[in-house]
Amino acid sequence: MVSDRPFAVNDVEKKPSTATFVVAFTAIYLIWGSTYLGIRVAVSTMPPFAMAGARFFIAGLIMLAIVKARGAAWPTARQWRDHAIVGTFLLVGGNGLTSWAERFTPSGITALIIGVQPIFMVLTEWAWRGGQRPNWAVFVGMALGIAGLAWLAAPDAVVNGHAAINPLSVIAVTLACAFWAFGSIYSRNAKPAPPPFVASAIQMLCGSLMLMFTALVRGEYSQINWNAFSGASWLAFAYLILVGSLVGFSTFVWLMKHSTPARVSTYAYVNPVVAIILGALILHEPISPRIEVAALFIIAAVIIVTTQKGRRGKADTANDSPSPSILLSARK
Asked: Angle CA(247)–CA(33)–CA(142) in degrees, nearest 5?
């Protein structure tokens, strides 16, 4: 555990030890990297939007019950409205599209594409009112990331003799990054903000309802065959709720409170590596030279963009870093 009371609302904690930080960072590196594998296994027999909706509805109820038991105030009507909007962008646009894409794309490649998320954050922040223009180094990083995506999704991309990577999946995951970035920036500007865990509970509950509505529109519920759901999918579903959303996110929020945003954001280029390794070991997903080259481009891009953001002034960094409540394990 990273804290005796990770969901506490008003606790005053002692300065954590180095060992505690090691455990916490290891947790978000491994847990969030492994959730791509979890999604891939879950959607192998479960409909993607319905699975994601059920996942976040259960996780949202659990989180809301915990924060209420810890004495958190009930959110205002405005907070419900604002974070319902955020939850829709993060969960339907972010997690929903990613879950759908993982039906056709290996988990490691999906995680690799999502690795460009910081680039979309920079672009969205720049476009937002009062946003700052990125410096030249960030533009270089963005160019590397785009080059990596183009190399990965090229029409002639064949992985060890298998079919080419589905370009629609690459587009869907890229759009998921854009929706995630917009929801993140919207959340940061939504005032007054509730405590992080309360905001996350709202986002998960409201976002899950929109995911369920999307599943209904797509006809997923009429096609459900409970007997077709594999035991592996059920285990992955439980893992995504209990470990991916609750434990992983709890650890992330704790780190955002005790470490710097630049250090915490290193998960963005560690998770794809973890996902690719797990996908290869457990699901025997191929790793071709094309994937290796794309990984180098994308991870280099994320490192450049992330470290350049981390070099801004202290006050600017405080304003620039995303609220912990908007970086829950949504598509992770």
From this structure: 125
CA distances 238 to 118, 182, 243, Å, are 28, 28, 8
Q: Which of residues 30 and 316 earns the better pLDDT score? A: 30
Q: Which among 91, 100, 85, 93 is positioned nearest to 56, based on CA atoms?
A: 91
Residues 318, 256 contacting (CB under 8 angstroms): no
Contact 5, 72 (CB under 8 A): no
Query: Cα–Cα distance between 7 and 293 in angstroms, integer?
Result: 41
242 CB-near residues (< 8 Å, 6+ apart): none
Residues 320 and 317: their CA atoms lie apart, in Å, by 5
In the predicted structure, residue 246 carries a pLDDT above the cut 80: yes
Task: Find where tokens 């995506």 sit.
Answer: 149
What's this model's pTM, rounded to 2 decimal places? 0.79
Using one digit for the tens of pLDDT, what is the confidence trace for 87-131?
A: 999 899 989 999 999 998 888 888 888 877 777 877 887 777 776
